[in-house]
Design a protein that fits this description.
Elements: H1 5-25, E1 28-30, H2 33-39, E2 44-47, H3 49-53, E3 59-65, H4 70-81, H5 87-98, E4 106-112, E5 116-121, E6 124-129, H6 131-137, H7 144-152, E7 167-176, E8 180-190, H8 195-204, E9 208-212, H9 217-227, E10 234-235, H10 240-252, E11 257-261, H11 267-272, E12 275-279, H12 287-291, E13 294-296
Helix pairs in contact: 1-2, 4-5
Length: 309
Amino acid sequence: VVSCPCALGLATPTAILIGTSMGAKRGLLIRGGDVLERLAGIDAIVLDKTGTLTKGKPVVTSIASLAYDGMEILRLAAAVEKTALHPIANAITKEAELCKLDIPTTSGQLTQPGFGCLAEVDGRLVAVGNLDWVHNRFETKASPTELSDLGKRLEFVPSSEASSSNQSKSIAYIGREGEGIIGAIAISDVLRDDAKSTVDRLKQEGIATYILSGDRKEAVEGIGETVGIRSENRRSSLTPQEKAGIISTLQGEGHRVAMVGDGINDAPSLAAADVGIAMRTHSKENAASDAASVVLLGNRLSQVEFFAL
């Protein structure tokens, strides 16, 4: 029947409708029939770390300070992060609430996705983010040795639900105007239960897997090793724009790329990919979901296996 041109015209949209319906039954929101056509040629999948390979429910495990009490470091960090939407920000503010700290009001809030947050607290600017970004905000009085020792003093305590090898370990540095870096907070997140099996399945189907993250190298290498992503396919300390640039490079080499992410830091990469896939979150403002062609409503990484069939 499909040898007839008219029948062929009917067969294509019917196949797309069936595929979209099958996806919906598996908890996949597929935005447009052309998405399935683009997914059919995917040979590389890029994965974010926080909230994608991990559960996205990090917790504070320790605090280190160069001159102040740890609760003061937490108080300042929570003030800056209380309006941010990143999982690490949520972990810091939740810990401050658990410690019953009086979180001060702020002004001049500025968030730079992939780097950190800045705000005026108690009359002085305070920054929370990665080491280089915070260091470049203010003139740091601490020596390189003191900064190195600060990170080493942090203890990462494995949660009760996973071994230390299944933990993603991140560090948020805190700096203040007139002082530079004054402390750091260790945050741990747990690897998703289906992360390794999903990566294994994708590789079995001949799909190359990559991890692109804004987190520090040690955290990315540890998670990449655990789930089985090749060392040359792991990239750390990336800005959102650098992630998107790497995806463009892969496309320039002839790859059809899907990107899986969950937060505002992933929006440029999701838009740059041939197909952007967002994990479902409960945030009212989900830039990842807005930029994605597919949303995993079940919030399970293993749902991407549907596209590898």
